[in-house]
C-alpha cells in the first residue's frame, strides 16, 4: 500500500508540473516563431487550443498536490523533466527537448567541435540501447578500439537505455583531460573501457590519389564547413591529375543538410533538383542547384548500413541524376529532417518537421538507398572502420568500375 501511494504521488507530481509548463513550452515556441515570422509557429498557435482539456484535467491534480503532498518540490528540475517527458511522448527518436544547460554542447556538436571521446551514437529502437555508429578518426574512442555496432551500456557505472541517449551523451562529455568509463557490449562480450576526454575536431575531409589517377575523398559527417573542405580537397587532387573520383560515405552518419546540398551543387548540372522536402501538410520545398558544376568526371560513391541522413541526400541525388554509381551496401534509412528552435529561455527543441524525397521522389526513411553494385566486405574484416585495402572489396569494386 505504501508503495502504491508513493507511485500515485509521483504520477500526481508529474501531471501537475506538466499543466504548469506545457503552457510555458507552447507559449515559448509561439513567441519565438512570432518574432522570427516563421510559418511553422503559426501552426503551433492553431494547435494550442487542443491542449486545453489536458490543462484543465491537470489543474485538478495540482489542487490535490497543494492539499496533500508532503515533500518539497524543485520547480526548475520538474519543469525540465515535464517538458522533456511531454516531447518524449511524441515517440519520435529524432525529436528531443534540449535544456538551456545542454544547448551550448549541442551547438558545438553540430558545428563539429566539442570536448569528449569522439563517437557518433544512434538509438537502436528495437533493442532500446545506445549503439555506436562510428568513432571519429584519431579520437580517444577510435584509439580505444570502439567499433560500429557496439552498445554503450553504462557510463561511469550508471546504466542507460536507448531512450536515454541524450543523458548518456552529456555524461560522456566533460572537461579535456578528465576520464570517463564506458561499459561496452560487443555481441556476447562485455568490455570496460576508460577514455580520456579531448578537444575533438570532428570530421576532417581526407583524400589521396589512387591507382589509374583515381581521386579518393572520405569524411565521416557533414559539419559546418565540410563542403568548403571537400571543394578544397577535390581541387588539390585535381591538381595532381585525377581523372575520376571515389566519394567514401561509409559510416558517415550525416549532419548539416546544407553542407550536403552544397556538395551536390558542385557536381550536378545547374537547376537540377537535389531533393524535395515535404512537411506535415504536404507542402513541398524543392532544393535545386544554383551553379554550374565544378566536378565533371566519373564518380563512385561507397555506402554501407551506417551511411545515413545527409549522406543519403547526397548519394540519392547523384544516383537519380546518374552522376554517380553507388557501390557497397544499402544505407541506413534516415529520410527525415529536423529543425532546431531556440526558445526565449535559452533551451531548445529539435523537432522532426519534414521528410525528404530524392529527385525521383523516392522515400528514404526506414527504407534506405540500394546500391547499384551490391558488394559486401569479407567475413575476415572485424572492424569496418579500419579495413586494409587488400581486403576492402567495396573499394576494389569502385576502382574496377573507374578504370
Order of helices and strands: HHHHEHEEEHEEHEEEEEHEHEEEHEEEEH
Using the coordinates above, name the CATH class of the largest domain. Answer: Alpha Beta
CATH fold-level label of the largest domain = 2-enoyl-CoA Hydratase, Chain A, domain 1
Largest sheet: 6 strands, antiparallel
Which second-level CATH architecture of the largest domain applies? Alpha-Beta Complex
The tally of structural domains comes to 3
Spatial separation of the terminal alpha carbons? 76 Å
Can you tell me the residue ranges where pLDDT is under 50 for at least 5 consecutive residues? Answer: 1-48
Based on DSSP secondary structure assignment, what is the total number of beta strands?
A: 19
Beta-strand content estimate: 25-35%
